[in-house]
Amino acid sequence: MESGATAEQIEHMAEAVRRLGLRASVIEGTERTVIAAIGEKRADMMESLASGPGVAAVMPIAAPYKLASREVRPDPSCVRVGEFAAGAGAVGVIAGPCSVESEEQIMSAARAVKAAGATALRGGAFKPRTSPYSFQGMKEEGLKLMAAAREETGLAVVTEVMGTDDVELVARYADVLQVGARNMQNYRLLEAVGGAGRPVLLKRGPSATMDEFLLAAEYILNEGNDQLMLCERGIRTFEGHTRFTLPLASISYLHRKTHLPVVIDPSHGTGHTYMVPDLAYAAIAAGADGLMVEVHPSPETALSDGYQSLDFAGFEAMMARCRRVAEAVDQELVGSTVPAS
Amino acid sequence: MESGATAEQIEHMAEAVRRLGLRASVIEGTERTVIAAIGEKRADMMESLASGPGVAAVMPIAAPYKLASREVRPDPSCVRVGEFAAGAGAVGVIAGPCSVESEEQIMSAARAVKAAGATALRGGAFKPRTSPYSFQGMKEEGLKLMAAAREETGLAVVTEVMGTDDVELVARYADVLQVGARNMQNYRLLEAVGGAGRPVLLKRGPSATMDEFLLAAEYILNEGNDQLMLCERGIRTFEGHTRFTLPLASISYLHRKTHLPVVIDPSHGTGHTYMVPDLAYAAIAAGADGLMVEVHPSPETALSDGYQSLDFAGFEAMMARCRRVAEAVDQELVGSTVPAS
Amino acid sequence: MESGATAEQIEHMAEAVRRLGLRASVIEGTERTVIAAIGEKRADMMESLASGPGVAAVMPIAAPYKLASREVRPDPSCVRVGEFAAGAGAVGVIAGPCSVESEEQIMSAARAVKAAGATALRGGAFKPRTSPYSFQGMKEEGLKLMAAAREETGLAVVTEVMGTDDVELVARYADVLQVGARNMQNYRLLEAVGGAGRPVLLKRGPSATMDEFLLAAEYILNEGNDQLMLCERGIRTFEGHTRFTLPLASISYLHRKTHLPVVIDPSHGTGHTYMVPDLAYAAIAAGADGLMVEVHPSPETALSDGYQSLDFAGFEAMMARCRRVAEAVDQELVGSTVPAS
Amino acid sequence: MESGATAEQIEHMAEAVRRLGLRASVIEGTERTVIAAIGEKRADMMESLASGPGVAAVMPIAAPYKLASREVRPDPSCVRVGEFAAGAGAVGVIAGPCSVESEEQIMSAARAVKAAGATALRGGAFKPRTSPYSFQGMKEEGLKLMAAAREETGLAVVTEVMGTDDVELVARYADVLQVGARNMQNYRLLEAVGGAGRPVLLKRGPSATMDEFLLAAEYILNEGNDQLMLCERGIRTFEGHTRFTLPLASISYLHRKTHLPVVIDPSHGTGHTYMVPDLAYAAIAAGADGLMVEVHPSPETALSDGYQSLDFAGFEAMMARCRRVAEAVDQELVGSTVPAS
Prior knowledge:
- Four copies of one chain form a homotetramer.
- Chain A has 341 residues and is an alpha/beta fold.
- The first copy, chain A, has eleven helices and 13 strands.
- Helices cover 34% and strands 16% of the residues of chain A.
């Protein structure tokens, strides 16, 4: 309550709490009075109480998500698809081009990232582009090319789904459905991928709080799908020397609050090729369960995101050092024992 | 180019520009060399050039949007629906509850906001909620109640559409389709509302840059729909004493760059009832073409957003002062001549 | 406490609270337990308790500042210097160039802003510049020129003091000592200006929270100086189309929490001349007690901040409309009755 | 220039550029015209040109700092004090309590951090506190205790100096003068520490851009002091689950742009004890030249920052793993060969 709240206001609000089916405990302090509301609360309740007379603030005490929480599932979960695994000590690397551009491009990328130790292939077939005038992806043709690459290399296919109408089509070809940062709070899409029977990789929106991120995860888990990875790909801040600011403390926080595996995307998280390896090492050292990295046969001619893609040699060098860093922190880079021929 | 770029690198990049069908003009400075790329450029081109050898940065010179720009349409556009009008000197006020909760609630709100001078009614039937466990709206039943309120009061109905599957249904009842902040970059939805034959109100995402906002608008305009309003509802910053930070300079900027009307939402923009009137006056003084305000018969018992809703008396008092401020800056609050009985 | 806190941890922390001289009230909820600590608390205490075993969070209930608060002084205070007044219904306008550059420049600016209705003259003699290679101000010579301008026009002189060594010198010439945004948490300087016997204008740092801002004010008030104005000049956000983001909700918030007058700086707050008038009208409509505006005889040739300065005609036009907006919200622009000859 | 700029405006601005002593090169594009200004430019010039008629934007091409840049000094510099070294392959660890509180506290902390492999001791004697009512430090007494700790352990002493008046006193006892984040743009202080004849550790302000950070460094270097370390300690963003957001991409960026060593502070950068080790590993993996870590004999009873301090056992465990991570990325943790007895 406000420090000047009257006895009437305090009783009024305690009564309001009780009307909501909660128990009200009134604590009188030297400067102000606090009403503790005890019981099964809903966000709605907090909102309506906040506008009551004399109320200074309504503060939540329990986390608003359940299925994502450590309290419901104390041990870390692990998402596995073929050789790919992320979580519970396994570090999986997803690599490949921003967009699928041609058969030659995606096949050469798949072979190169496999040889360097990746266990999943990324590639966009449906591309969410800021401008309606930019390249929008190869669509189903792109999905087919990724499936062919899986056929040859055994890599799991991770690709983005942009709309509810595309979920079934994408799920036919892909192993993991990616929900992009722009769609993190597209609740219709979250429900649809939650029910699609495929593992999901959910990217954090660039201005999402951790509660919003975990509640978006909750939409997916709530459909009965527990094969879910969270991906930190950077937040929007005042910094202009990077495309986004990549907060690696997200790993520590999410590991404490949730059992879900945490994947880091240093490509979008920095927006500059030269920074990607440094942040990949940092992510693994901080305990990440996976990496998602843009790799292109020729970044200079890429149709999208060339400025943040590694070439094959750069990726191979990065993976070699990633293995050493993972060992230093007692994690295992799955698939990394495959020697680069 | 980087300051240490070699002559070979410079010639390489000038040639790369030419291969893209552009004209390359090389300017040698005392510290570094600039290559001006002249012609019809695409975002893709910038991205691929940025990763070239010796390139320091690629900077755009022309705006990436076209249909939204003043360069294509120099005069301000005005969106009109019944008595509601926003743009080109007219200031329209959209008011009503966050969510439609019952017939009594929405009818009483419609009558009250109409009497105070609003010309459009807001109300959520499909509610995007951060948590899957929160109230999700009355859905079609809510749309019917809003249509009934229009029947009696003549207010235009503004309501949010959350997914492509709902566009047709919502367009059957609503006068203006709202795209919420969380869906600002849900491109499938932008395309769908662009083709729905109804005026659209597009809310800015809380971390969207102005270029991203105007390119999202471009997705809608590109479907042939030019009845579009832009709504500033606050951005996410480090500030914790407001729900979002409401940047009114958006009005000046958007008026300079685009012909589209700009609506301000001081309810979401502040998150506190007591701040709403101050920011509403400020918005009108700064030249806003419209306001979107949450009004509820009983904010304290609202199922959502009660902490930022005005009650009827608060809204009426606010509107009286809004009229005076609009006059002071030579704008006209449409519908405001209706005397509050 | 964490939801899994043991009875031992709870008793341990309740005891820790008691050892700090506070009263501990333990409230057991369905999901977790809260310990309310009642009494005269210090920030230090919160910090040390937060690291105790099983502690989830320590949340403050009372505001950490006292002298700045409405609880200590319920009525708004007003700062007056000569004809200038800000607060308690009076709106004062401080205008002039970013830097004092020459006698002719400052005298012509003083005459022009006085004629248009300003009651105080701004001008930098000691300039905090981001780069050591930029123009650093005319120093004492600049102060003398401002004093001469006061002599002729009667305008109060407002100028920045950058270091403790300069306080006495600046106070000899100036009527109001300005603490710049970069020095908002330079506590040595705050103490020095607090004891200098002159009114102070304290600018908000671009990433300061409201509590940090008001605690910086508290450093000044704590030296016995109650002639203090708070100046909002914009915060640093991801937005790139303005120099800073100017949050006008600061006015509403500060008026609720503190008795101190609130001055808005739309010049630094936007960084673009064309936006300055719109935001000035908005600030007054939102209830600002003052404006601080950069005005230069020839913005194009200014040695600093030309891109955000108004010329004389622009300022005069702005002031005429400011007067109308102030009337519309029942505020009085002091000095504005002087007719522009 | 704006796309609608007239030939007169273009010629006017080209002439304005020439009057500033620069060479003007006019490039006519399909959509707009660019004027390249070539020569020794100053920030002032850019500002004044930006307000010219028809000007759309003035964009810098060369970095504004010189002495800090790789262009002036291509090889990385290393700061050495006794056994402590940071830069050019050496990783130095600075550890100790937030504030010096007593002889026993600082001596036990010094012994413990030395044993675990730190080579410098941190500890605040003059404390910049947000509130004037918080503990302000032991002042000279604290400095004496730190000097005694150096005497016994050989650790270099790093401590903050808050004001110009204290520089001489602090320099008498300390080996490295720290400029805190709040004072990053206190230019008087930067000049004073630049001339004090001691190595300096400059902390980044929580909303400082990289250019502002490097220009603050330039103020120090410009006084003839090249024994300078840059410290990233987190930026202010919308995130609430950490005290600040710690952007490790700063390491990659600063290593590319400047020769100065980069130290990371994971204690302030996260604000939570449990996150500190993860971010310390990440910092070293990303290439940091040093760490600055808060360690306290009993975090729970610390007078400041207890919630982000490690205890002795936590620090020792962290250092053991830091050594392994440093090896994995071919860096050397100096002093780390001292076996913890």
